[in-house]
């Protein structure tokens, strides 16, 4: 099935049955939940989209449920440090995780040994579209298109910043090297904020990341955006052509990543559905709508069931791509 059609079908699903089942109170062992503060572990540092979504939704959950939802940033190893900690946590509804698709999908290809099992150790809670992740260069660079970037990379080594080893931009570098004869060196960072600072100061040739995180540097005239992935242009950057429009037909430029909220496996289903419902409702708040606008995201998150179905379908595509590109961090 065409992946874009599948995605549209999933995005449009209302899941009325799942949401309808949330009308009654939490039962039995979950009746008193939450009776104490809840930890939400974020696999990346502050300053990027993952952290922004986590903090905004945690504030909403705190207000609705009457207990603090406290964000803890545990960055490193493409989200593996945070994931390992959450995998070991008690499945009692007092520990959750926000992370990106790399943590659940590509890490199993990138690392020979993992401290968690992506298939067995987590329960899906809610998912969020990661939006467009543009390719940008320093404003002093003569490069103005993706094609010019690749042409330069064929002549000499260039560097491409990425917000996490093994992430989508890391795989872009490998794709350009394998299929287009480029010499792109991926430069991993622990999050977006330091990456954009380095690009703005000319320490790296280019970088790929979220629109909102790069926006201050774009507005200050320090960087220039030259391409966006997926098959449609970003509503935040309507004048920037897609990679596909610039002649790059590789599958990686058509796929779109996600940000996900997870719980330890065996967390009571009533709690997961309750959180999923509140995340859906919270997406209509002014703060979260502003985040969606700033980052160019779709407004409605996926429910737990929608999110799991989506990743069961597109996860293997990401994994196969990482395997074919020979991306490894061991």
Structural commentary:
The protein is α/β, with parallel strands linked by helices. It folds into two domains: 3-129 and 257-325, Bordetella uptake gene, domain 1 (D-Maltodextrin-Binding Protein, domain 2, 3-Layer(aba) Sandwich); 135-253, 3-Layer(aba) Sandwich (D-Maltodextrin-Binding Protein, domain 2), CATH 3.40.190. It has helices at residues 3-12, 16-20, 49-65, 80-88, 101-104, 107-110, 146-155, 168-180, 193-200, 211-219, 269-282, 286-295, 304-325, and strands spanning 38-42, 69-73, 95-100, 122-129, 135-138, 158-162, 184-188, 206-208, 223-227, 258-264. It has a five-stranded mixed β-sheet with strand order 2-1-3-10-4. It has a five-stranded mixed β-sheet with strand order 7-6-8-5-9, with helices on both faces. Helix 3 (49-65) links the parallel strand 1 (38-42) and strand 2. Helix 3 (49-65) crosses helix 11 (269-282). The longest helix is centred in the last third of the chain and has 22 residues, at 304-325. It starts with a helix and ends in a 5-residue tail after the last helix.
Percentage of residues in strands: 15-25%
Instruction: Examine the coordinates and then state which fold CATH places here, giving the name of the CATH topology of the largest domain.
Output: D-Maltodextrin-Binding Protein, domain 2
Shape estimate:
globular
- Let me know the CATH homologous superfamily of the largest domain: Bordetella uptake gene, domain 1
User: What's the CATH class of the largest domain, please?
Assistant: Alpha Beta
User: From the alpha-carbon coordinates, what is the Rg to the nearest angstrom?
Assistant: 20 Å
DSSP strand count: 10
Largest sheet: 5 strands, mixed
Task: Calculate the terminal CA-CA distance, rounded to whole Å.
Answer: 34 Å
**Oligomerization:** single chain
Low-pLDDT residue intervals, each spanning 5 or more residues: 1-30
At CATH level 2, the architecture of the largest domain is 3-Layer(aba) Sandwich
Helicity level, as a percent range? Answer: 40-55%
Number of domains: 2
Strand order of the biggest β-sheet: 2-1-3-10-4
- Return the structural class: alpha/beta
**What's the average pLDDT?**
88
Q: Number of helix segments? A: 13
- The ordered string of helix (H) and strand (E) elements is HHEHEHEHHEEHEHEHEHEEHHH
